[in-house]
Predict the 3D structure of the following.
Amino acid sequence: MPRSPEPDAGRRAAITLALACGLTAADAPAPKAYLLLAAPDQLRESVQGVVRGRTSARYLVMAAPGEALDVRLTANNPAVYYTLSTPGGAVLLYDSSDPDAAKRFMRKVAPGGRYRLEVRLADAAARRNTTATYSLSVARQAQLIPAR
């Protein structure tokens, strides 16, 4: 009687084929980034999501020069944080994993364009392959409105 294939034989064959073709993890496509506040008249947007292990959720936030961005994150796990970078990703504007940081960023931005926002788990939680849900609220306005 012929032997049945092992349950992960297909996965093993795919890995072998990828290695034979010289593909590496660096060749894998980058995670998709979702565009927020895309329309010029759109001032606020909220999204819910899930992060697990070393995966992250990536967003591009549209802002004009001199506009204020207000980003708030709430999560069911304190190990969830976010980073916000300038268009092009050259400068890190905010990292909520900093011990002195809050889960809210509110500041005027100088250059206009697509700001990069990434939601992820802290390294210790990512190593444990933790899953966490989050809610992200992003707003833009012509001037800063003090937090209450």
Summary: The first helix runs from residue 9 to 20. The domain at 30-141 is CATH 2.60.120.380 (Jelly Rolls).
